[in-house]
Design brief:
Length: 462
């Protein structure tokens, strides 16, 4: 079969790859996207961000119905969990969104090939699978993402001992779920199953949860999760997991094994470069397996680029999207822009935890003098009306210039609120800029204004 020719072939149809493909097509490149899974959207849409958020929403409503409605004066009869419907709704959300990308590809003229892509040599992409063939291309972008990391002594059996993929589809709430790793995935999915009735034990190797997040926020989150009934064992080294006839047993160093019926392993992710033929093509990787790129996202092989999780940094869908757009704009226009200092991170638990810029720990380590303003949601009218007053906003600003260096929020809708802080930081705003911007009343966002006022000891409502 004669090779099909394209200007750009992107391997991987996740948030990095599909967004890059749409941007490239809109900029006039003849663009193709090779994706192995029948549905576009990658881990994020199919088995990550989106289904987990669907389940977080549903489980939170169930929890609220059981524990919070009475405070609003709403009485309900016998509450019942219909997990099958909950899972079906989640699958429906995923289906609608992944189909939506098919529609966008058609609208903008991106050619889609279903199969595993590899790079035998720069300028060629081989497709194996449904749309098998060989593609000729001027530029290639590797956007193959990441996969769950494993632990020595722990083998996934795709059922009782698994990753987030399995934990998004348990057909009944486990009696006792052991989560290994108190990071983003462990806490989000641990929270889902706790709300749906499971006993959940989270084992974390470090002496704190959420490494990398501001330690004060993480400590507050830890307390809130414990109140919700999540049990934590910190400084805990898992040495193995045994699957038994009924359930499993998790072995930990220096303590008794823990019996449970399911294990979720969430100890980070590793780059997904399987079957890409990177060695054949001569594409270099670092010692952790991440593809090495320059500031234009080009690998050491001319015309071969890489973006998203596969190049490391924060493994976040929106970071991959920014890189995809910057890479394509670099190819077409000669320049592309990405501001790594203003990429937010969000943990979608309840309370939500959101962060942008430097943490207080980082500022201390780097010896940067800073001022700090804090405002608790307890003193925010909207949070009171919502009956959701746990948490606070913390703003860190440069001691001398007042430029905002970091914003950390724990509390209701923190993930949405952090966008304002990201925009402020992208524009180099000072905390005074935030403090003197009118924020609608009554909104949760007023807590940001008040925290900015607090940087100058000018807060009003506390
Ligand atoms: P993570 O890096 O967030 O957390 C992994 C945790 O496992 C860490 O706390 C680590 O100390 C711990 N750990 C490592 N080895 C261990 C061991 N042997 N025993 C016990 N604990 C151990 O990784 P996670 O949660 O797997 O998420 C992977 C990636 O996916 C993250 O980089 C995250 O950015 C991304 N993600 C983002 C989400 C979001 O934006 N809301 C949601 C889910 C994932």
């Amino acid at each position: 079969m004669a090779a099909n020719k394209h200007d750009l072939v992107i391997i991987g149809g996740g948030p990095g790859g599909y967004v890059a493909a749409i941007r490239a097509a809109r900029l006039g490149l003849d663009t193709a996207c090779v994706e192995n899974a029948p549905a576009l959207g990658g881990t994020c849409l199919r088995v990550g961000c989106i289904p987990s958020k669907a389940l977080l929403e549903s489980s939170e409503r169930y929890w609220e119905a059981a524990n919070e409605f009475n405070r609003h004066g709403i009485k309900i009869g016998q509450l019942e969990l219909d997990l099958a419907t909950m899972l079906k709704r989640k699958d429906g959300v995923v289906r609608t969104l992944t189909k939506g990308i098919d529609g966008l590809f058609k609208k903008y003229g991106v050619t889609r090939y279903e199969g595993v892509g590899s790079i035998p040599i720069a300028g060629r992409v081989r497709v194996e699978g449904k749309d098998a063939g060989e593609l000729e291309t001027t530029h290639t972008i590797i956007a193959t993402g990441s996969k769950s990391a494993t632990l020595p002594g722990v083998e996934f059996d795709g059922d009782r001992v698994g990753t987030s993929t399995e934990a998004l589809s348990y057909t009944e709430a486990p009696k006792h779920l052991v989560v290994i790793g108190a990071g983003y995935i462990g806490l989000e999915l641990g929270a889902v199953w706790r709300r749906l009735g499971s006993e959940v034990t989270v084992l974390e190797y470090l002496d704190r949860i959420l490494p990398g997040m501001d330690s004060e926020m993480a400590a507050e989150a830890h307390k809130a999760f414990e109140k919700q009934g999540l049990a934590f064992q910190l400084s805990c080294k898992v040495t193995g997991v045994k699957t038994k006839k009924k359930g499993c047993e998790v072995a930990v160093e220096g303590a008794d094994p823990i019996a449970c019926d399911r294990v979720l392993v969430a100890v980070g992710r590793v780059p997904n470069t399987d079957g890409l033929g990177l060695d054949e093509a001569g594409v270099k990787r670092d010692d952790k397996g991440f593809v090495r790129v320059d500031e234009r996202f080009q690998t050491n092989v001319k015309g071969v680029y890489a973006i998203g999780d596969v190049i490391g940094g924060p493994l976040l869908a929106h970071k991959a999207e920014e890189e995809g757009v910057a890479c394509v704009e670099g190819i077409v226009k000669g320049y592309g822009h990405i501001d790594y200092d203003s990429i937010p991170g969000v943990v979608y638990t309840h309370p939500e935890i959101a962060s942008v810029g430097r943490t207080e720990d980082q500022l201390r380590e780097e010896g940067i003098s800073y001022k700090k303003g804090v405002f608790p949601f307890m003193a925010n009218g909207r949070a009171r009306a919502l009956n959701d007053t746990n948490g606070q906003v913390k703003i860190l600003a440069d001691e001398h210039s007042d430029r905002v260096l970091g914003v950390h929020i724990i509390g209701p809708r923190a993930g949405d609120l952090i966008a304002e802080a990201a925009v402020a930081m992208a524009f180099g705003a000072s905390s005074e800029d935030l403090a003197y911007t009118s924020h609608a009343h009554p909104t949760l966002a007023e807590a940001i204004k008040e925290a900015a006022l607090a940087v100058h000891d000018s807060q009003i409502h506390i």
